[in-house]
């Protein structure tokens, strides 16, 4: 089977399962056409004439979905519910079949109503026959608890490899309970309803052939996926010659192989490591100066600043990178906020760079998975040397809780796997 | 560990004495706290061995279980603890105040609430376990206990649960309360040893904190603060005493166990009251009262629950109960962090270091500045502040000021240490700002993005409406004889 056929077969199976079960879960690796599936399923349900509610997690995700729904199904009425502080972006206002309101009655009676999970929690006294919950692995189960009575049947779509939902307080008290409120909505749903069908999208359309096997092996060790394109389908070329600086060498390595590790000398640093921050920002600036052009199955286009992202673990690192001087059109953000986004080239400040301990936060495999799977062409990782040694000195020592299902992948192992691959693409400032 | 705490720890090592990391006290210390030091039997999860308890430093009450493997004796011990604890709690139930609230019925709130102090976090957890093992017991049926035991269990559970609420002071672990205010030259793990921690904070004259902490590690000089006892004491003193009681359960044998345990508890008892004095010597932060008020409200509600005869707290949180508790904890965590920083310039300095706050001098002000025309005209005074802090706030960020309650502003521009702010709240209702509401040039001000604006979450369904995704409605709890048969008790 071609990748296209393989993916289409899964989508058909999902749509066929929808009326047969109370809930259907679809696991989707990065860039596997999750949104496409949501839009397709929405159209499929709307055809039956029954109303549909769609739940996403952030306002950006809702807006993205509204835009795609409106484009794919121009004759479908779409209502977008929003909270009071929300400012409707121009791209949504321009859509003729979309209405925006803070209250359900003000929307008219569209076939599809879409809002964030937080907003849905305030909508009572109506039941929808159908719901689609997007990014369900990023949704905390207590949010699902608040909205589950709104729908009769639901399709849950999400990426199990990305960041787990979190809480600022300690949730150990509930560890092992099947309804643990800090677990993801899907974990809780499946623990109470183990007979629900779980499908997996098998092909990543985003990740290039150079990245799919690495990400699949490190973060999806048992389910796996493959790239929808071959090694020859994607390439990145620079139209301006470099000066053979270490930055140029790193960018050329990334363009040639899809990966580069820009490795600074080993040192324990504060979180906003000035040297690493400067290197990250400089790589981005240099990348633009080299006027890259991306060739892919969709044709060729220059890689402009809006197709580049810089990712880091903490907000203060993001602020520091911004302050170090990055063209404003380049996205600089934390892993949490980059979830679900796609770029041509990403530059990543490694979460463990310069650290002297490997905490659960920094080891969380989802964080690295998000950062390492946003790109269509190449990913440059900036890190201090010594991370494998740090990992060896800090094997995961979290207490084992009774009744908690074992979760894969293990953050420690995933980190080692990615680093092992990156070490083949190492460039240091002395090169 | 934050940069300033790390610095304080280094200074503690250099100077040989713990360093203050706050300028004020962030927890409530009652005028009449009850100190409770529980001990448990080694190798057992919830077998109480002894407790020293009381409100008078000069007259502690010592309770012991001469044979902790005997369950009847354990529950006799619980009845003894209830004799001290319940009258103490009831002492706070009587005097109440009427609280008016907007859009609701006025309600009653106790004027003060009980406060229990235990040595460390393990003692707090053990208090919870003791509550768990006693709250389902009954005065009739199989294995009956004294009627005060299940009531004690519910109160112990209440205190242990409540102690996990950030900012609550109804049950405090002394080591945690002290570490919140002092940084020592030892690790966080070592700080959990009360004697060592107090050695650093308040070393004996002529001795360095480091030396005092080292001395505190000798279990013969400073027996562990519990709940676990020193293994040497267990083997050499306690085991023979218990064996003697086993062979001849006389008053003399009980005395022997009591005397042995008293040697283990007395030093910690004195340490606990020293900790109380040290904490009392700190000036109280301005929002500590607000948080104690919430504690008083929570205490009053629990008193009412018991008076209504509602069942004991469930063994495990149900789906809805867990979500509700999580929402409450998150809300408390967020506002506790904000309140402490606003109360304490030293804590705010941490945020200034990370760029989330800044302090500086006003260099320009336009108090009459407004936005919009006609009816939608809004007063939006502008001020410019010069600061040397590494500010990392982007335009549009909403900020508050620790010096002015109810004051809010928005960052307009931040370049080269000059920050322009637009004041959006706290100027009064007039066409011109209320006097003093807009900082004047030359005034020293501070602002932070750390504001208490936690959005409350939507209502949860009732437990009887738990949806299918979360396992459906739970079975209702029926007290029964099975409760007394629990194997692990």
Automatic annotation (TrEMBL), chain A:
The lineage of its organism: Bacteria, Bacillati, Actinomycetota, Actinomycetes, Streptosporangiales. Keywords: ATP-binding, Helicase, Hydrolase, Nucleotide-binding. This is AAA family ATPase. InterPro entries: Coronavir_polyprotein_1ab, P-loop_NTPase. Signal peptide: none annotated. It comes from the Bacteria. Transmembrane segments: none annotated.
